[in-house]
Amino acid sequence: RTLRVNAQMRKLSAGRTSLLWHLFIGLVLLIGGLLSVIASTVLPNILRKISLRRQLDGLSGNAASMSTRVNSALRTLIAMEQRRIDLLLKHTWVFSLASTEGLDEIAAAIEQLVKRMKLAHRLEDLRRRLEDGLTTAPPSITDGIEDKLQAAAALLQYFVLTPENVVAANGYMEAANAALESLGNTGVLAVQIAARFQELKVRQRLFPASYYSDLQAELPGMFEVLNQPFDDPANITPSMMFAIDFGVAALHLAFDYSGIRAGAPAIENGSSPGQSARERLQAHHEEFVTLLGTLSRGVLRDLRILVQEMRENIYERDVLEEIAARGKAEIVLEPQVARPYEPMVFSIRFKDARFNHAAAIQRLVCRWEFPNHLQEQEWKACHFFQGSERTRGDDDDGDNGVAVSVRVEARRPIARAVAAEDKASPAPLRSVLSTRVEIERSAGSSYSRAFAEGVRFLITFGVALAALFSGALQQVERLDFLPAIVAVLALGFGADTIKNLLTQTAKKAAI
Predict the structure, then answer these.
(1) Which of 81, 344, 373, 498 has the fewest CB atoms inside 10 Å of its own CB, making it the most exposed?
(2) How many CB atoms lie within 10 A of CB 176?
């Protein structure tokens, strides 16, 4: 009896065939698991990154509309934070296992930026309302409002906007808003001005007339205010409020100046060799009289600063000379360690502590020069480094770090009355300081981090797939080839263990 037999020659042995088949099943499981990770982690991260980018772009247009009514330092901080978030978004790789943690950090930064910008826009609106009432409002009231708004702006300039800072800033702005609303109540304003005038009259009675007789001769119209019956609110009309309140504040400063001048020592001091404090003060007499006779709201602030300079015996030129002298001043950093994408504050610190809080600083302007041709103009400048700035060490001269310099100069030309002081001490009207900042870069490169993440991924993924491997083989044995492959692929895709192990790693690390 004859039987027909069909035989097929296999190129590989049974063992190799089994090995390749198992590898093929493992590859299908791997593809399913990767699709699961992409669907549960990568795609949500991509969508979240797009959403964060749209939020940031919307904030960019909002910040661009912010006017100069907002403090320059606050506007600089907002722009710097926007740029920092933008760079963090660009450098966030959504396929990285740590991208979720990075996107959480960016979302928190955007939330803080939104909060800061809302407060900045409220500050801008209050300043706009203040400008509308500057022409007729009493300077003492508007200066008080300006001080409150400045205090609120200072609280908003902290890098970390804490709830306490937000509450305090809102408190200052609420007080400023209440004062702005009171500008429409002329009866209350007249009572306040009359009370300040009465205080001025009391001071005049107790102040020696010989101290200010020369000022009275130079500005008779200013001192004539003292002879008017402005102690009665009924004699103060709305159109007179600005001039009367200005005169009261200016006369108080005139008495301050006269008292300081009378008490200034006539002996030589260390601030300016060859000159006494009285001579230095007298050199600014013409400037003081010129300001005193100018009916302008901004003049009062200049007068207060000048009087404080006389009281401290420290003027703009002294600060410039101190900066120009070697070893007397330096640039300081807060925090002291520079790291990529972390904001820093740059300021000038003097060896002589008297200069650190001198009033003369308010009459100077600083021009900071940072890498990549970035500039800022504040006594305290905000900046951050990307970590990619070119350092001098790249030229192999042995000096690492990026260069930061500041040029300090007078906000406006120094008065002609200081010519005698200039001859005694011909110092430059601008001074320059510079320093080098070393950026603490990460020890490992991006390749080392990618390798570490890859190893962690393979270990986690391998353990999870090994647990599913026996179930995948059973599916193959029960079904035909194509349905079996689909079942194995679905088995890898639906593995919750893989999703949980991979997506929760960054969260656990953060906690």
Answers:
(1) 373
(2) 24
Q: How would you write 249-304 as a 3-class SS string?
A: HHHHHHHHHHHHHHHCCCCECCCCCCCEHHHHHHCCHHHHHHHHCCCCHHHHHHHH
Q: What global pTM score does this model have?
A: 0.72
Helix (H, G, I), strand (E, B) or coil at 153: helix
- Residue 510 pLDDT > 90: no
Give 143-185 pLDDT, tens digit per residue. 889 999 999 998 988 888 889 999 999 999 999 999 998 888 8
**Across the strands, what pairs with 378?**
none
Q: How far is CA 502 from CA 95, 106, 303, 419, 462, in A?
A: 12, 21, 66, 74, 12
Q: For residue 487, what are its two tokens? A: 């079942």
Give dist(CA 74, CA 82) in Å, integer: 12
356/348 Cα distance (integer angstroms): 8
Q: 10 Å Cβ neighbour count for 268?
A: 13
Residue 410 CB burial class (10 angstroms; 0-12, 13-18, ≥19): middle
Per-residue pLDDT tens for 74-125? 887 888 888 888 888 888 887 776 677 788 889 999 999 999 999 999 999 9
Tell me the C-alpha distance between 285 and 415, whole Å: 10
**Which one, of 504, 458, 460, lies nearest residue 98 by Cα?**
504
